Amino acid sequence: MKLLLIDNSNTRTKFALSEQEGRFSETFWIPTSEICENTLTHALHGIEFDASLICSVVPLKRKVLEDYLNQHGPVHALSCQSPLGLGIDYPEPDKIGADRLANAVGVTDRHGAPAIVIDFGTAVTFDVISATPAYAGGVIAPGLGAMGEYLGRRTALLPQIELIEPPSAIGKSTQAAMQVGAVIGYRGLVREILSALRHEMDGKVQAVATGGDASLIARGVTEIDAVDPDLTLHGLERVARRVFAIDGG
Ligand SMILES: Nc1ncnc2c1ncn2[C@@H]1O[C@H](COP(=O)(O)OP(=O)(O)OP(=O)(O)O)[C@@H](O)[C@H]1O
Ligand SMILES: CC(C)(CO)[C@@H](O)C(=O)NCCC(=O)O
Ligand SMILES: [K+]
To answer: Which residues bind substrate per the record (predicted)?
Structure first.
């Protein structure tokens, strides 16, 4: 059975086909702002699949995706009601972003629990999975992109910057100085939050990073144990296999 997995996030919407567990083909992305019936028809032209699973944190786009995919077979939208294989220890489970739930499933399945998963996307999210395993809550902070963009928009003299490793901590240009603030400053944010989370948990807890900016920020941060770029997709696949009753689900 061929599954179409869709991660509908605020910046990019990622698509992947899965026929064999853990192997993704036909992976591509579309800017989320451009998701409409037309772009979907073009992007999915010639791609065959039997069922699809949507993980959306953009309700209007989720509706467009669901309406389109419903014409092409069974569709499941990931939520706290989905067969996650995890408990949820949280006062209002239906308020948790579907991507955060997918990340919790992915990290538990691939790395075990307890764990902290950090997703460096438009926002950076930290999600905690207890030893049970159960989703226990987490942290939402501005993404690295937002940190870079904000100063360029709100000041007269500061430019937009490219988010790359600065050559030294002492910035020798406006751009370099801003890159230190964003990239090195961001690593400090990550270390401090991880330390506070681990302080409230028992024993050794691994931290796994994913999302667009994960490899840049994780560089040299020993508090992050692994970078797993496709963690959200793996979580989606795991849930899809259960929903559509595929072997190994
Ligand atoms: N080709 C790219 N296009 C857009 N962003 C990119 C790209 N490559 C890396 N990035 C970085 O990835 C970040 C966005 O990450 P990602 O694609 O994981 O976002 P997202 O999943 O849409 O975010 P979110 O889930 O928070 O909405 C941006 O801050 C940017 O710095
Ligand atoms: C935090 C984001 C934007 C990260 O993609 C998403 O998970 C979301 O919109 N969540 C809803 C609020 C919450 O998770 O508490
Ligand atoms: K994401």
So the answer is: 90, 97-100, 174
